[in-house]
Amino acid sequence: MDECIDRRLARELIGYEVKTVPQMGWAGIKDGQLLVLAETEFDVFITVDRNLSFQQNLPQFGVAVVVLHAFSNRLADLKPLAPKILEVLATATKGTVTVVE
Prior knowledge:
This protein is α/β, with parallel strands linked by helices. The chain is 29% helix and 13% strand.
């Protein structure tokens, strides 16, 4: 999960091993390099950065990207998205972008 997402959201993603950008020691790394790192370690990258798909050529990366659209990146606003996130994680394909709202 991207560093701008409350790490407590990981508790809602039952059945998946979830690591945050800070846990991986990647805090402060720019998006392009972050995706390069993520594709070597993970199948899915979760973010709230709505501009990521405009700023990066996401199909070139070997990681699925899930973009969360909520009122804010506060846990209270993101937590209701957890069931939809779990659905997406079950079928996420590398190189794709899925928006969860």
